[in-house]
Structures are given as structure tokens and as C-alpha cells.
Amino acid sequence: MKRKFLFSFYETPQGKLLQTLEKKYLKRAITVSCKQTILQIGSLGWESEFIDCSLYQRFNVLDSKGKGSVEAVKIQARSFKLPLQSETIDLIIVPHLIEFDANRFQTMREIERVLKPGGDVIIFNFNPLNIWVRLHFLWNKQMSDSWRGYFISRSRVADWLKLLNFEIISTSEFTLDSIHTTHDKFKWGKTTYLSMAYAVRAVKRQFTLIPLTPVKVKPAGLVAASTALKALIHRIKKHD
After folding, report:
1. Continuous segment of H or E residues that includes residue 75
2. In what order do the strands lie in the sheet with 197-204?
3. Which DSSP state fits 41?
4. Is 156 helix (H, G, I), strand (E, B) or coil?
5. Which of 11, 13, 122, 188 gets the highest tally of CB atoms within 10 A of its CB?
């Protein structure tokens, strides 16, 4: 299981703090109505701690092993081949999946496909600039053996989203005790290196091309000549 490192990390003291911050973030981030459809790609097991599944009955957890909170609707499938119709999801949550997904490029395309125009996507990743996160799994043999992923920077995620016509709304960083959120583009600061993980929220934009019908305009000289010719023919007929 490629995400085994994630669940092992959540068992550490720092991981428990990160889990608490991510729960707090998701509680505030889920702003869609109860009748809209939410898809979480990759189970966590503690979904009921940040969303009321009895209220959000269209909350679905898609996982290759069919795992997820008991209260949630579960879908067993691969993230890079979503068994869903295009443009049917209002909000997609991707908690620490892209960095463990060998088919992450196809997964991103699938996310764009099933998300409605104007719908949001929230992506969680570990912070590759945090030295402690990089070394922690090396010091812990159990966590080191379970690591089968790639550290992905915020700029790389931003580039992928831009190519898929997404607009970044905000970037949030999770330190040991707080959440720092910046709107629009990511800004460098002290939390860039201190944060254990980050979240990127983006909205899908769909632009409709309006075809422009070319207007045929006759050259001014030809129009004048044509008018003069008609006037000459009229005078000839009048004299006749």
C-alpha cells in the first residue's frame, strides 16, 4: 500500500498535530450545499470527523481498496480511471494521494474531467522543503520502508492546475500549531520551510469561445466607381 507512510506518520506526535489541523481546515473548506456532490479520492478513515455524512448524503470516498469512513458512500476504483460521468462533481478532495500515485498525471486529468465548471478541488501534499519531514521517515525504519511516493512542490501543482484551466484560489500551510493561508498565488515566507504540509484550493474555469463572423466590407474605391457607373447608365437612358 503506497500510502502506508501517511497512516504511519499520523501515528507520530507531529502527525497527530497535522491531522488535527487538516480536520480543522476541511471543516471550513467544505462550503458546498448538502445537495451537491462531494468526492474524496483516497480514504483517510476519519472522514466523519470533518464532515457529517448524515447531512451530506452525496459525500463519496473513492479508494482502490474500498476503504473509508463507515458513514460515507464508498466507491472501489482507481483514481486514474474514475467510473464517473464527466462534469458531475461539485467538490473534489485529494488528501495526500497525488504524491503516492504513479499515474498522477492521468489522475489530474480525470479530476478535471469529472468536476463541474466552477467546481473546486482541494489537494493536500507534504511540504518537500521541510527538512524534518524528509528525514523523519529515514530515521524511522518502519516509515522508511513504507515510503513509495514523490515529494511534489507547490509550484509543480500550480503548473499542473494551470495547464488544466484551473485558477488557484488559496494556498494553506500547516505548521505545528497553526494554519497559514494566502490567497491567489503562493507567497514565500518563514512558514515555507516550517510547514509540514500544504493544501491548494483551485476552481475549474471553462471558457467558451465565441466565433466571430467576418464582416465583408467592399473597398471604398469600388463602391464609388459602382455608384458612378449606375448614375451614368441612368443619364444615358434618360437622354434616350
Report:
1. strand 73-76
2. 73-76, 59-63, 38-41, 89-95, 115-126, 197-204, 166-174, 179-183
3. E
4. helix
5. 122
Please give the DSSP secondary-structure letter assigned to residue 98: G
> In this predicted model, what pLDDT tens digit does every residue of 82-135 receive, in sequence order?
999 999 999 999 999 999 999 999 999 999 999 999 999 999 999 988 877 777
pTM above 0.90? no
29-52: pLDDT as tens digits: 999 999 999 999 999 999 999 999
CA distance 18 to 13: 9
* Listed residue (168, 173, 164) closest to 191, CA to CA: 173
Kindly report which listed range (1-5, 38-42, 148-152) carries the lowest average pLDDT score.
1-5
All structural domains of the chain with their residue ranges: 4-210
Query: Where are the strands (E) in 127-211, listed by range?
Result: 166-174, 179-183, 197-204
**Residue 149: Cβ-neighbour burial (10 angstroms; 0-12, 13-18, 19+):** buried
CA distance 100 to 104: 8
